[in-house]
Design a protein that fits this description.
By secondary structure, the protein is of the alpha/beta class. The protein is about 40% helix and about 15% strand. The chain has helices at about 5-10, 15-20, 25-35, 40-55, 60-65, 85-100, 110-125, 160-165, 170-185, 200-215, 230-240, 255-265, 300-315, 345; strands spanning about 70-80, 100-110, 130, 150-155, 165-170, 190-195, 225, 250, 275-280, 295-300, 325-330, 330-335. The strands form 3 sheets. The protein has a 6-stranded parallel sheet. A 4-stranded parallel sheet has the order 7-6-8-9, with helices on both faces. A two-stranded antiparallel sheet has the order 10-12.
């Protein structure tokens, strides 16, 4: 800032001050700020220099009065520090900023009533659009329909059926299928599942696809054990799996539980992957840097978030929006935690690994 320029004003600078200092009209300043075409480069540079000298900042409230738009997006989601939702929120904020929007977040407890109240708070704040993320299945969210009087997009699974909102998510089913195919191709006779919470859509879809993939190949389906997405729960469930010598391959519904399970196996004296292979889902930032780098399913959370925000902004600004559900592809990232089945299985020796399995569906949540 030029010495004394703002101090001479004695107040917060406004657009007319920028125009006066740059020697242009207020309309020209507005065109430069909004990156409109047909402004000479030398004029743009002069206006930007005046903005810098004055320390001018756009008045969002005044702009909203003129345009009837706040350029703020509301995000309603359950309060959590889990990797997936946190990465999703960061992706939404980054994408919104790139498109000239701010983000305000309303966190909810894991109940439909709390989520509806969170949406209502955002609508009352005058947001231009809503990004909704509610992971729980079988909850009645019909009250949201009376609240989102602004464009809305769903990121995830559970809202789609109930509200018919445009949805951007990842192909959960294909990710689970890729894991099962990878482990069976390595000679494992079946794949045990460390499932996520049964009341959450992503966990239910991954579990259903895991089960279907095994049934299609004729492999028995052992009843899955359920965790809560945390490494601690993965460790606790992993201790039970490690006690069964017939378990040679485990698909954990997320990376944190996979890491916890690996520790349980190692503490039990079972080597990964020589004795048991472990595969996760998410490709969290630290998964490649574990002592045993984790084989996992990579989902592009940033791309999903960006596409959802682009669709929402398109609807707000009367561009092309999005209809139906868009599922982004996933990739299997093979690292050191998965390997060939133990030699005793390949040679047909050892106890029958399927003695406790069943081909009936386990009591997991209904897939929406």
């Amino acid at each position: 800032m030029a010495d004394g320029v703002q101090e001479d004003l004695g107040r917060q600078p406004v657009m007319v001050d920028v125009a006066r200092l740059a020697g242009v009209s207020q309309k020209t300043v507005s065109r430069v700020i909004n990156d409109a075409p047909n402004v000479r480069q030398v004029v743009r540079e002069r206006v930007h220099q005046a903005i810098a000298d004055l320390g001018y900042r756009r008045n969002a409230a005044a702009r909203a009065l003129v345009t009837q738009q706040s350029r703020v997006l509301g995000v309603a989601m359950p309060a959590t520090t889990d990797y997936g939702p946190s990465a999703q929120l960061f992706g939404v904020e980054t994408a919104a900023s790139d498109l000239g929007y701010s983000v305000v977040v309303a966190s909810a407890s894991p109940s439909p009533e709390s989520f509806v109240r969170a949406v209502a708070r955002l609508v009352d704040q005058g947001v231009d659009g809503l990004v909704l993320s509610y992971p729980y299945v079988d909850d009645d969210l019909s009250a949201v329909q009376g609240l989102h009087r602004v464009p809305a997009v769903n990121v995830g699974e559970a809202l789609t059926t109930g509200l018919g909102l445009p949805t951007v998510t990842v192909d959960q089913e294909d990710g689970a299928r890729k894991v099962v195919e990878h482990l069976l191709a390595l000679g494992h006779r079946t794949v045990h599942h460390l499932a996520g919470p049964t009341d959450q859509g992503a966990a239910a879809r991954r579990a259903a696809a895991w089960r279907d993939a095994l049934l299609r190949t004729g492999a028995p389906v052992a009843e899955p054990l359920v965790g809560d997405w945390s490494a601690r729960s993965g460790y606790q469930v992993g201790r039970a799996l490690a006690a069964d010598p017939d378990v040679t391959a485990v698909f954990a519904a997320n990376d944190q539980m996979a890491v916890g399970a690996m520790r349980a196996f190692l503490e039990a004296g079972r080597k990964v992957p020589a004795d048991v292979s472990v595969v996760g889902f998410d490709d969290a930032p630290d998964s490649a840097y574990q002592v045993i780098p984790l084989t996992t399913v990579r989902q592009d959370v940033a791309a999903v978030s960006r596409r959802a925000v682009m669709a929402l902004v398109g609807a707000i600004e009367d561009h092309d929006g999005l209809e139906g559900t868009l599922r982004y592809p996933v990739d299997l990232v093979v690292r050191a935690s998965s390997g060939p089945a133990p030699a005793r299985l390949a040679a047909g020796r050892g106890p029958d690994p399927f003695r406790t399995t069943s081909t009936t569906s386990p009591p997991t949540a209904k897939v929406g």
